[in-house]
Design goal:
Elements lengths: L2 E5 L5 H15 L9 H13 L3 E7 L5 E8 L4 E7 L8 H12 L4 E6 L3 H9 L3 E7 L6 E7 L2
Antiparallel strand pairs: 1-2, 2-3, 3-4, 5-7, 6-7
Length: 150
């Protein structure tokens, strides 16, 4: 599959929200991500208005959004990396992570839920190191802190 990365535009919001709800619901079926849609819509707006970068990954043949990232290049925080369920395991996450590293070439930091074994394995393969542990303030679930540096 061929992918292209581009900046987020407001018209992308409904598709991004659908993708976010579906992707996270697959990982955490016990959490109602549909209920969190309004919060996440506000989060994206705040992120973009606050100087954070939002990049969208499209499948080039259909222009369908397959994933996105939210990264703050000033703090190196990768707040979100989200890939649609149909594109998991098809290099979409690698394209998105490469864009995060391009935008923040000195370091990328992120938090990952401790029970998200697929994501933890992915970040480990991509050169991230675990730097600590904590608790997600919204869900109360345990998280791991990870960092990548070249």
């Amino acid at each position: 599959m061929a992918f292209a990365i581009r900046p987020f535009i407001t018209a992308d919001l409904p598709e991004l929200l659908d993708l976010w709800v579906a992707s996270w619901s697959e990982v955490y079926a016990e959490i109602d991500f549909q209920e969190r849609r309004p919060w996440f819509a506000d989060h994206i707006a705040d992120w973009c208005n606050g100087g954070g970068a939002c990049r969208v990954l499209e499948e080039t043949s259909t222009h369908r959004i397959v994933g996105f990232i939210l990264i703050n290049t000033g703090t190196a925080l990768l707040d979100q990396i989200c890939v649609g369920t149909a594109w998991k395991g098809k290099d979409a996450a690698r394209f998105l992570l490469a864009e995060a590293k391009r935008l923040s070439p000195r370091m990328v930091r992120l938090d990952v839920n401790a029970m998200n074994h697929r994501a933890i394995a992915f970040y480990s393969r991509e050169g991230f190191e675990k730097t600590g542990e904590g608790v997600n303030p919204r869900s109360g679930l345990p998280i791991f802190h990870y960092r990548w540096q070249p």
